[in-house]
Prior knowledge:
Alkaline Phosphatase, subunit A, elongated, alpha+beta
Amino acid sequence: MKFGVRGHVRAFKSGDMSPHSKGFPGHGSRGLHESGERTRVARLSPSRNIRNGIITIVTFTSSGARVIEKTMKTKLPINTSNNNNHTNNAAGFSGFLLGKLRRRTALLAGVATGVLFAAQTSPANPPQAIGTVFVIAMENHNFTQPPTQTSPQQIFGNPAAPYMNSLITAGNPNAAQVSYATAYYNAGTGVHPSEPNYAWAEAGTDFGMHTDADPDPGIGNVFNAPHLTAQLNAAGIPWKNYQEDVQLAPSPIISASGTNGPVNPYNGSTQYNYAVKHNPMAFFTDTQLQNVYPLAQLFDDLNNNSVGRYNWITPDQYNDAHSSLNGGFTYNGTHYTGDSANIAQGDNFLSLVVPQIMASQAYQNNGVIIIWWDETEGGDDASRTLGEFVISPLAKGNAYASSVVTSHSSDVKTIEEIFRLPNVNNPIPAGENNNFGGHNYVATANDLSDLFVEGTIPAASLSVNPGDLVFNPHTQHYSQLVRVTNNGDGPAPTPVTLVLDNLSPNATLLNADGTTAVLPPLGSPYIGIDAGNSTFAPHQVRTVQLEFADPSGQSISYETRVLSVVPTP
Length: 569
C-alpha cells in the first residue's frame, strides 16, 4: 500500500499564522481534514534491502494502513527568513512543505526499481571471508539442453564426464564442498563465439565484439575500459593468469598449436593448442602481457603458497573440452572419439587438477574454485543452461543446487564483492538482451551468494531515509536532505550514487551530476553521495542535499536506486 501526502504549498511570513491557530491560512479551523481530524502519517524505516533486489525509499505509510489521530490544534514549525535577508542553511530553509509535493519511495514490501546493495542476514556465527579465488574455464558444452539437441552433448548425466557429475551428486564424497547453479544462462543474446565471453568475464560486456581473432587494435578487439583485473591492480590485490601451453607461443597475445610439443601431463599426447581467445586479460591494453604464466607454474605456486588472491586458469583446447585429440582419448578404460572425447579430456583434466588445488593451503584457508563454461551451444534461450560449479569450504555443499538466475556478470559481481570493489559498468550492446528481456549488467545481475553459506559473500546493506521537502521562497526551489546508512557488516564499494527514477516531468533535479546512460531506466538524474570518500564503512551515514525546481507547482514524485557505480560509461 502506497500513498502520498498532498496539500497546498505556500511560503508564510511569521505573521501569517499564530503558532496557536487552529488551521492554516485560508483553511479556517479545518486543518488538513474536515471536522478537525488530521492525518498523521508515520514513516517506516526502509530497512528491508534485498540482495540483488532493489533499494528504493519509503512512501509515507504506517504498517499497511494510515494512522488517523484527532487533534485539537495543529501546530506547524515554520522557518522564516533571517534578518539579514539571506536564506538559512539546509537545515533551516525558509518555508515549509505542506503539500502539492509528494515523495514516493518503496514500502517495506514495496515495488522494486533497481538493484545494487542488499541486505544480508547475519547468521548466529559471523561468516568467514573467502581467501583465494580460482576460476577454471571450460569450453563449448551446455550443462542442460533440449532432448532434441544431441550435438554437442550436454554435461549433465554424460557418461564421459563421471568426475564432473560426481561433483553435483548429493551424497558423493566429491560433492561435499560443492554447490552448483541450475539457471546459469548465456551472457546475452548473440554473445558468441568464445572470445566475447572471455572479455565479458573481465568487463561485464563484450563491447559488441564477435570474433575469435587474436587481439589486434586494427580489428577492434583490444579495449581500454574498466575491467576486473585492472580493478585488482588499483586495489593492490595480487592476481595471476595461468594459461596452458602459453610457453609454446611467441607471445601471450599470439595463438600457437602443433603436434610436436612436450608430452602433456594430463592427456599424454604431444599436441598443444594455446588459444588467445580463451585468455580474458589479453583483450585489455593494461593487462595483455601482465601476470601470465604457464599452467605448470600453478602447482609450484600452490606448493609455495604464492598464488594470487584471484587466479584465472585456462587449460589448452584439448583439456578444456573444446577439441578432440588426434585418434580420440581413452579414459577410465573407455576409448572416446569426437565430442565424447572432448568431454572426457576435460573431465580427466578437472579430476587431476581440482584435487591438487583443494589440497593446497590457499584453498583450505577458505578458498573457492569456480568451474566456469564459456557459452551455450545451439541457442541462447532458457532451455539451455551453462555449468557453474562452486567448490569451497564455505559453499553450502553436498551438491546444493541453486535456481537463482545467474550469468557471467554474476561471476564478475561476486568477485568484486569478495574483494570490495565497485561494479564495472561498461555498456552492453542493445541487441544482447538476456532471456528475460533485460540486460545482464554487473550492477543489476544476481551474484553467486546463494551457492555459499549465508553471509559468506560480503554485501553492504544500505538504507535510504529522505527528509522533508522544504520550499525556499528566495530561490523558488525545493530542498530535501537524504540520509544513506550502511547497516551491513561490510563496507560498501564506492562510488555510491543515488538515482532518481521516474521523476515527475514537472520537476528538475538541479544539482544532478548527470543522467543514466547505462543501467536502465535510462535518462534518470543521479547524484553522487560519497564525495571523495574511498570507503563507506559499516554504520556510517552519508547525506546528500537534493535541489528541485518545479515551476508548475504540481506534485513531485520519484523512485530511487542506490548504485555502486557512476551510471555512465
